[in-house]
Structures are given as C-alpha cells and as structure tokens.
Amino acid sequence: MHICNICPRNCGADRTALQTGYCGETWEVRLARAALHFWEEPCISGTRGSGTVFFSGCNLGCVFCQNRDISSGKVGKKISLKRLTEIFFELKAKGAHNINLVTPDHYLPLVAEALRRAKTDGLDLPIVYNSGGYAKPETLRLLDGLIDVYMPDFKYWDDRLSQKYSHVPDYHIWACKALAEMVRQTGNPLFDHEGIMLRGVIVRHLVLPGHTEDSKNVIRYLHETYGDQIYISIMNQYTPVGSHPDMPELDRKLTEKEYSQVVDYAISIGVENGFIQEGDTAEESFIPPFTLEGV
C-alpha cells in the first residue's frame, strides 16, 4: 500500500490503488484546461500569454474557491505523463512566455517527472508553480532545479480563518515553511528584457471581505521576513460564489475601502516589489471556461 503523505493533510489514501485522497484525486493526473492565459501578473502573462495548465482537484478546498468546478474534481480528463509533456511543448508553440502549473500540489511527484522528461527533450521556457501554499518543504524539494518561478498563495495568518474557510487548523505554519523553501530554491528575482520573470517568487494574497486585519498580518510577515527578495501581489478579485448561510461575510464583494486599507498599509511599511489590482475586478473574467481546451 502506498500511503499518500504528499501534503500536510497526510490523508493516508492509497491513491495508486485508485483511492481518492482529500484532494479528490487518485494517482492519475487529470487536467481541466491547457491554454494561453492573459490575466496573471504582468510579468507572468506578458504580451503573449502564460501557458497555463489547470490540474483537477485540490488539497485545500476553500469554501470560496472561484475555480470550484475543477478544484472539486467535477471537470477533468485523465492524461498520461507523456501527454502532459506534449502539452508543455504545444503551449510553447503557441507563443507562451512560460509554462504555468495551476494547483499541481497533489500531483507533485508526477509533475516533477514530467518536467524532467520535458527538459530532457529540450523544453526551455520558465516553469511557474502556481499553488495554494499549503505544502511540505520536503515534498517541494523534489522540484529543486525544475521550477523557475514560484507563485504561491498566502491565504491566512489566523488559523481560525483557515479552519473555517479551508478546513485546515495549521495553514500559516505550513505556508511559512513552504515559502522559505521556495525562496531558497529560486533566490533573488530575475527578469528578461521584456519584463517577464525568469526566476523568483511572487506571493499572492486575496483580501477577503471583513478580514483586512488578517491581510495586514500576512503582508507584514512577508515584508519583514523577505523584504525585496519576493514580490507581493495583493488581489481584490474576491468573487462571491454560491451562498454561505453560516458565513454571510463571504456573500458580498470586497469594498474599495477595504482593499485600499490593505494596499495603503503595504505602502506604509515599505513594500515596493508588489502588484495591485485596479477597478472592479470581481466583475471581470478571471475565471476561464473549463472545457478541457488543450487537454
């Protein structure tokens, strides 16, 4: 029996025997979309788009997830590692600035093997690892030398919030450990002549309605710990999905005042390497159609 302990949940499922883990997935890679994406940070999307590969399933399962069709496993197609490497090259042929792996944590050893094969076959684009931030450092070490840009979330500081919204009592502890390993692997940020990030870490933080103080705590930790060694992306794109009778605070959009408070705080403590969003982004299409395009 192969007990799954890839992520901090240590759910113990034998995914090789087609049992599903907490992530909702077996040991067969499933994808929901593989296409150019233009809604990432400017240094990731650039002018030609980021070659995003959306993996089905998730080890967090946040109640407010915007990609719930794929995070819940409703959408996805099983593929081989050979097909996964082919997809990387197909995205390169379309002009992608990079290969952007979205929510790959629960497939990490398989993703590492696919990347090794692709690099052996000549793949030379930067590889972006776009994750929820809830990961073990020892698992991330399997990616050492394979990932150029880490783009993790840092969702919460208060573990009461992580328990309430993501059903994990220890999110910030593991997020801190995972981030330290990501920064160790990539070092200081590096960009090409087009402004595309070739190496480094961008930490994303989605400001949740009613929780600006927690956002400030996250940003303070990131800045005090890493300074200009990382970029911080402060996002206002929270979009209410469904209804949460026991969590009414999630059934509204973030206000401009709330977002401004967090951004102003970041500026006040000296954050310079960062990204902010302007306008009513909750009304824009940050959620692509998951129709198995490119899979």
The separation of the N and C termini measures: 30 Å
Shape: globular
Number of helices: 9
Total count of strands: 10
Rg over C-alpha atoms, rounded to the nearest angstrom? 18 Å
The main β sheet shows up as: 10 strands, mixed
Tell me the structural class. alpha/beta
Report low-confidence residues grouped into runs of 5 or more: none
Return the string of H and E elements.
EHEHEHEHEHEHHEEHEHE
Kindly report the average pLDDT value: 94
Estimated share of beta-strand residues: 15-25%
Q: Roughly how much helix do the residues carry, as a percent range?
A: 25-40%
Account of the protein in words:
The chain has 295 residues and is α/β, with parallel strands linked by helices. Helices cover 31% and strands 17% of the residues. Strands 1, 2, 3, 4, 5, 6, 7, 8, 9 and 10 form a ten-stranded mixed sheet that branches. A hairpin with a 5-residue loop joins strand 7 and strand 8. It is globular. The chain starts with 29 loop residues before the first strand and ends in a 19-residue tail after the last strand.
In short:
31% of the residues lie in helices and 17% in strands.
